[in-house]
Amino acid sequence: MSRAPRVAAARKNWGSDDTGCDFLHIDMDSFFAAVEIREQPQLAGKPLIVGGSKERGVVSACNYEARKFGVHSAMPIAQARRLCPQANYLPVRHELYSQVSKEVMKICASITPQFEQVSIDEAFLNIAGARLRLGSATQIGQELRARIRNEVGLPASVGIASVKYLSKIASAHAKPDGLLMIPKAANQEFLNLLPIEAIWGVGPATAQKLASKGITRVEQAAALSTHTLVSMLGQAAGIHLYELCHGIDNRGINTQRERKSLGKEITFSQNQDDMEYLHRVLLNLADELTARLRSQGWLARTVALKVRTGNFETKTKSQSVNPPLNTSPEVMQVVAQLAKQVNLGADPIRLIGIRLEGLIPATQGIQTTVDEDPKAKQLAAGWDAVRARFGRQALGSASLLGLANPKEDSDQSLA
């Protein structure tokens, strides 16, 4: 789900002229939570938090009803319970979500072969070739949403625009369960309403640098010359920002997108220095990523750890492994070494993430550690089967990293 900043004024009817508006971005609404509500319809309309029932777990996803109470992803479960004690708390079921994602992407592919999946719950489509068969851009967007609703049983939001990245911003403003089209002639007017953080590539550090110059909105940055932005941010970043602030994006749909890595990172609402909590977050990330690896038939040859401190210093370390891996314990053993290299714990952390790189098909015939031990291989398959049915909370992991205080009884059963 998109976390792009949203502006109420930008969610309006911008007109019906879809000339040149060939980019469509589909984004599933509260995907994990929506899948759980589909499985248990009695939960509809009630606050739902996906992330397990343990007091020391981490929120993986929540629906809009829960967000009204201030709950958000990456929040400690204990804090979520204080904010929304009446919510329903469910464990994460990544294998189920991966299967549902495949159903959604199959529908996208039936609309047009010009589609690019970018995450488990979102994709870009170039609908130029589908117009003659399916109608206007808006009609195609509504058709896609209706089919996902009818065939998969889930809500989805659609953004349509003349350039790729604007369609993604539009889908964020279409939420929940809506459609927003930005006519080409309205690109600049739409952009001018947005905060500068809405632009791709503008993270906290860049936003802070621009804010120090009094630039907090796209309209302000768009009024500056390329030279001025380059002097502020450097050659590549300055040109990138100038182009996006003017609605310039020459990228097309990558239908042959090769999966080279799989990663996830968490940005905390408050800087974290609780090592036990950071350990649980890392374990949660490793568990999720390796479950996705196995469900998609991949092995990883490199593990990377990324941390960003409260003063926006970013540290990234990676380590190659042989044989390649696809289980959480293997990943966490590498992460333990990388954590020492980045000196994790020396400073409060704003962001933390794991990326699995150098992906190769599991069918390529390279023998892995799991393959060398039939019992370990059977155990991993058993984890996936049990979690697909009962959720990841059904099985816990032993302490792996040594990041938690060994004097405390650290809960390793994360959701």
Automatic annotation (TrEMBL):
Pfam families: IMS (PF00817), IMS_C (PF11799), IMS_HHH_1 (PF21999). The record marks F32 as: Substrate discrimination. One of its GO terms (biological process) is SOS response. Residues 23-203 form the UmuC domain. Mg(2+) binds at D27, D121. One of its GO terms (cellular component) is cytosol. Its EC number is 2.7.7.7. Its main location: cytoplasm. InterPro entries: DNA/RNA_pol_sf, DNA_pol_Y-fam_lit_finger_sf, DNA_pol_Y-fam_little_finger, DNA_polymerase-Y, DNApol_IV, IMS_HHH_1, Rev_trsase/Diguanyl_cyclase, UmuC. Its cofactor is Mg(2+). It catalyses: DNA(n) + a 2'-deoxyribonucleoside 5'-triphosphate = DNA(n+1) + diphosphate. It is found in: Cytoplasm. The active site is at E122. Keywords: Cytoplasm, DNA damage, DNA repair, DNA replication, DNA-binding, DNA-directed DNA polymerase, Magnesium, Metal-binding, Mutator protein, Nucleotidyltransferase, Transferase. One of its GO terms (molecular function) is DNA-directed DNA polymerase activity. The keyword RNA-binding does not apply. Binds 2 magnesium ions per subunit. Belongs to the DNA polymerase type-Y family. Poorly processive, error-prone DNA polymerase involved in untargeted mutagenesis. Copies undamaged DNA at stalled replication forks, which arise in vivo from mismatched or misaligned primer ends. These misaligned primers can be extended by PolIV. Exhibits no 3'-5' exonuclease (proofreading) activity. May be involved in translesional synthesis, in conjunction with the beta clamp from PolIII. Monomer. This is DNA polymerase IV. It comes from Boudabousia liubingyangii.
